[in-house]
Structures are given as C-alpha cells and as structure tokens.
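Researcher: I'd like a candidate sequence for this fold, 266 residues long. If you have to choose between options at a position, lean toward the conservative one.
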C-alpha cells in the first residue's frame, strides 16, 4: 500500500477533506464544473487528477487553494472549514502552495522578483532580506541564469519553474500543481517528474519533510509510475480510482484513453 500510516492524532486529520462539494468556475462563478465531490487527502499522499480539457481541473485546484469558495457542500483544510478569510487563519492557507499552469507571473517583474513576492508580501521582508532564500530557490530550480529576465523573455518551461519556485518559497506542506507537464518537451518532463519525486520523498529545501502533492494532467502515462493515488474528472464528477495497481486494472473508457497504449510512451 502506498498510503502512509498516521502516527498520531494530529496526523489523522486530513489535510484536505471535501464532502459533497460543488465546484464553480474560476472564470464564470455562475457555472458549475463539478458536483458532489467527495475527496480526502492525507499528509504525504501524491495525487494525480486527470481529465480532458474543460473538465474542471483548474477550478478544483483553485477551490482547494481557497481562491474561490465552494458553491455547496463542506470543505475542510487542515480541519478548518473553508473558505478561510479570517486574518488569523492566513497561516493555515499559506500551508498550501499553488503552481498555476503557465506560471501566472507578473510580467513587469523579473523572475527573481516574482519568486520573492510571497516573502515580501506575507513575511514583510525587504528585497535584501529575501535575497538569500530567493537565490537558493533560483539555484534549486536551475533559474539562476534567468534571475534578471522578465517572464516575457523566457520560454514556457522556465515560466513554469518560476511559478514552482514562487510556490515553494514559503515552504508549504501541500503543493497543488495545475498541469505542470503541459506543453513541455521530453527532457523538461523528466526534470519535473524527478523533482516532484524528490519533494514527495522529502527534499532538503523543505527540511526533509515529505510534501503532499496534488497534480492535474491531461495524460496519465507520465504519472502512472510516479503518482500514488489517482482520480479522473468526467461528466462533472470526481471519480477516485485508487492506487497504482487499481489504475492499471481500471476498465473505465476515459482511463483507458488517458493511458492510451497506442500512443508513444513518455
């Protein structure tokens, strides 16, 4: 079994717990993207949630991160009912980092300045005070050579890495990644898979603590030996598939499509 065993009462509290949650659209709050979502994530798990375009993947992660409120149902983050807007609970929300598809960087800032933003805003550090942590993150994500570039002057992969570095700078316990492999070549796909594997196992940048990961994807093939828990989004439903052995044996036509064996392997 890939599921970690909780060692105490605190670890038994799910980091993410949704009961009959209705997910709206980030772009149009009048739309409902997912209905009756029942989903539990425990510390240290590595979820891969796949679906076709416009199936609600980004909306699910935005709701999970607290950017939009659920349209219905109950969602608890670290035991706190969401959405959390109270100032005293901000620290709970900052335990979750979100990496947007494409990075979602500020184009008037350099790569280094984008990465520093959470430290400047949430920790009220000066640029000089934040520099050591930012430089370490630039080195970790192999972005040092582009630190002074603006996002418009670098490629998609580097934008994605900058978004990852920005999300990691506050050392979150849970990392949500929206379509991290989208639009990347094979070499860059390998970098991301290896790096996320290190985070899942416990990276030094997070003091060796295994990260809880949730990634979305439009193709399950790169993830079938990487993720530990799997789900698909289909017809406004969140369908949990189980662990790796369950994924390989699943008969759902969409799962077979997302694992298409007649396409070249990655």
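Model: Candidate sequence:
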């Amino acid at each position: 079994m890939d599921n970690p065993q909780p060692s105490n009462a605190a670890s038994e509290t799910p980091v993410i717990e949704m009961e009959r949650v209705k997910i709206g659209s980030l772009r149009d709050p009048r739309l409902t993207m997912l209905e009756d979502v029942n989903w539990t994530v425990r510390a240290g798990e590595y979820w891969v949630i796949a679906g076709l375009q416009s199936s609600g993947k980004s909306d699910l992660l935005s709701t999970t991160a607290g950017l939009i409120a659920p349209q219905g149902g109950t969602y608890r983050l670290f035991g706190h009912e969401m959405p959390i807007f109270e100032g005293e609970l901000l620290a709970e929300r900052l335990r979750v980092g979100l990496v947007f598809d494409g990075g979602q960087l500020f184009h008037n800032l350099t790569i280094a300045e984008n990465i520093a933003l959470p430290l400047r805003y949430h920790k009220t550090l000066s640029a000089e005070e934040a520099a050591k942590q930012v430089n370490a993150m630039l080195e970790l994500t192999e972005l040092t050579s582009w630190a002074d570039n603006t996002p418009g002057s670098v490629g998609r992969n580097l934008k994605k890495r900058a978004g990852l570095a920005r999300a990691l700078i506050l050392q979150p316990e849970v990392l949500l990644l929206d379509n991290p492999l989208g639009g990347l070549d094979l070499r860059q796909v390998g970098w991301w898979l290896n790096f996320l594997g290190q985070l899942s196992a416990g990276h030094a940048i997070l003091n060796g603590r295994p990260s809880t990961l949730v990634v979305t994807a439009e193709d399950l093939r790169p993830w079938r030996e990487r993720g530990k828990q799997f789900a698909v989004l289909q017809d406004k439903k969140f369908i949990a598939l189980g662990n790796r052995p369950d994924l390989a044996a699943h008969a759902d036509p969409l799962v077979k499509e997302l694992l298409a064996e007649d396409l070249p392997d990655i």
